[in-house]
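Handoff note, outgoing to incoming analyst
You'll be picking up this chain. Sequence as last confirmed:
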Amino acid sequence: MIYFLRSSALNLPQITRLAGILLIFAVGLIHLYKAPEHFEAATYLGVAFVINFVGSLVAAVGIFFGAKNWGWLLGAWIAGGAFIAYLVAHATGLASFEEAVGNWANPWGSFSLIVEGLYLVGYLSVATGLAVAAPDRRNWHD
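Most recent structure output, in case you need it:
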């Protein structure tokens, strides 16, 4: 059943939770895969990519156990931060990483933006009540 906001919801908690887990885990895997080349470009970027992966794992575990507050929110910070950092790096550049400026055709970067964007849309749907991720914590009274 599909409804909107507080009076109703997309009541598919297992699918919502699974989608959140897979998307945030994919964000982390993409960053882990690209970490070695970013270590070569700028050490701080490689470290940030590894931290992104670890944070993604923690968020995925939180979402798995139904932690709507911290699991989904941590994932939103990770995905949102990566999304913004990518835009800044390619629009204006980052320290020791000027080669990214204007390189918008990077397939891994584009894929990462799509996955991060999808996660953020999922997070917003859970945070606003459009989708149910943890029905036992919804506190609905019919």
